[in-house]
Amino acid sequence: MTKPGRPLLKVQGLTKRFGGLVAVDTMTFDVHENEVLGLIGPNGSGKTTTMNLISGAFPPSSGSITMNGRRLSGLPAHKIAREGVARTFQLVRILPGLSLIDNVVAGAAFGHRKRWGLEAEQFARDLLERIGLGDQIHLPVGSLTYIDQKRLELARALASEPKVLLLDEWLAGLNPTELQDGIDLISQLRQEGRTIILVEHVMDAIRSLCDRCIVMNSGAKIAEGTPSDVLSDPEVIRAYLGDE
Amino acid sequence: MTQNGWKELGLIAGLVVIAAFVPIMTDGYWLTIAVTAMMYIALATAWTLFSGPTHYISLATGAFFGVGGYLVATGMSDHDISFWTMAAVAPLVAVALAALVGAATLRLSGIYFVIFTLGLAEMIRGLVSWVQNNFLGSRGLYVLTDFTEAHIYWMLLGVAAIVYLIGWLIERSKLGFALKIIGNDEGVAKHLGINTAAAKVMLFMITGYFTALVGVIIAPRYSYIEPNLVFSPELSFMVVIMALLGGTQRLWGPIIGVIPFILLWETITVSFPYSTTLFLGLSFLLIVYFIPNGVVGLIEKFWKRRDA
């Protein structure tokens, strides 16, 4: 396994207001190279909004996001993708009208590390094999099970060889067997030394996958540290379970 | 390049050659119908270039077509500019218009885009009428050329063939792939690194160019041009109906839709000249309700069943 390296992504004073609601409130944190960072917190605490700000789904109200010193905040989503940020979505979003291969080629063709034509197809084939969809390659996308759709979406995100991968509740909605497969898959990505931010509710996954965790509540950061440290933090327990 | 792609192109080339003989085989009534059909084939194929993969229903056909026809008429009547010069200039004006409209509206999605494009044609028609009545004097605009119906037919055939070839090339390009992704999920497309606004505006401009060019070519047929004639919302709807009837998921779909619809339309206008709009609406409903994927969808379903 690769040790977490120098800071890759820097988030500073990140704030997002929707009208009067402050969804993300002056968040500041770094993501290091080869690190798996967990973003956790109760429902509605602003995790997905933070992911959306990083991927450029919408611009922040204030604050900045930089990657390797280059400013990402304020750029449109397609430029952020080209800089090397790829993501999956909270509710899986595959491309239903395209074949499995084309779903992955879609990730490779326009993003950070561009591939096209035969090279892209071969690359997509290899990725699908690696991610466990080798046998389903020629099936219609609509016939995939839920976890296979999630695998496909992950393959698409990996296809651009992103510098930072954003996984928004990638493990949500899986049954116990699938969940173990899913955790193994992400742990394999971790061993490859990828830099990942994951939003997750599954505590087993957080404990086994994350190098570090950031806990959010009501849009703000309330704790940061190793999974075991933050999960035993009284303020974090209070945020999840309320006062005794 | 797949073998099927070449086969498709070969088939279309064969059809173009056969279609080129139509004016030699016939004249009079059937040639008139053939010119109308060829006009709609070119328009519907140009429409499908943009609306097919993106699923954005554009009702701007009348606007672009009108820009072509009206500019030719103004240029020739008021400024003694030749037909060919105007044929070169007018489509470029339509491209500029498409870029402007595209930049303003393609960020909107779905229904807003449809309504805007419909409003656009109406607004331009009103504006042009107003300018003409108040500043240019309300005299007629004439497009007088030596073109026969056969000439017009061949020019339209040429445009239709070029539009098809361009569409065929786009379908196999990265731009075509990007449009397909946009049609599937525009939000995902953005996050994959696709500049969705640029891709859509680019295609909208290409569609605008050829739609205006058809308006230019057809203008000599009318001889006398006024804004209400060329900026026709009915034309926009006709093109959408024919494209949907044929099926928009294949580039050759609209061609299949145009021919039966033109014949049907001819029967309707002859038999019920005062209720054409009623039948237009009725056919729209029937097509969308019974064959949402068009004739192409029916054919492909049949093939699949036969293979299975």
Automatic annotation (TrEMBL), chain A:
Transport in keyword set: yes
Pfam hit, one: BCA_ABC_TP_C
InterPro entries: AAA+_ATPase, ABC_AA/LPS_Transport, ABC_transporter-like_ATP-bd, BCA_ABC_TP_C, P-loop_NTPase
GO MF, one annotated term: ATP binding
ABC transporter domain ranges (all copies): 9-243
PANTHER family named among the record's database cross-references: CONSERVED COMPONENT OF ABC TRANSPORTER FOR NATURAL AMINO ACIDS, CONSERVED COMPONENT OF ABC TRANSPORTER FOR NATURAL AMINO ACIDS-RELATED
Identification of the protein by name: ABC transporter ATP-binding protein
Higher taxonomy: Bacteria, Pseudomonadati, Pseudomonadota, Alphaproteobacteria, Hyphomicrobiales
UniProtKB/TrEMBL annotation, chain B:
Record bears the keyword NAD: no
Residue ranges of coiled coil: none
Record carries keyword Chloroplast: no
Transmembrane segments: 9-25, 31-50, 57-77, 83-104, 111-131, 151-170, 201-222, 228-245, 252-272, 278-299
Source taxon at top rank: Bacteria
Keywords: Cell membrane, Membrane, Transmembrane, Transmembrane helix
Pfam family, one: BPD_transp_2
Topology of this chain in the membrane: Multi-pass membrane protein
Protein name: Branched-chain amino acid ABC transporter permease
Species for this entry: Roseibium algae
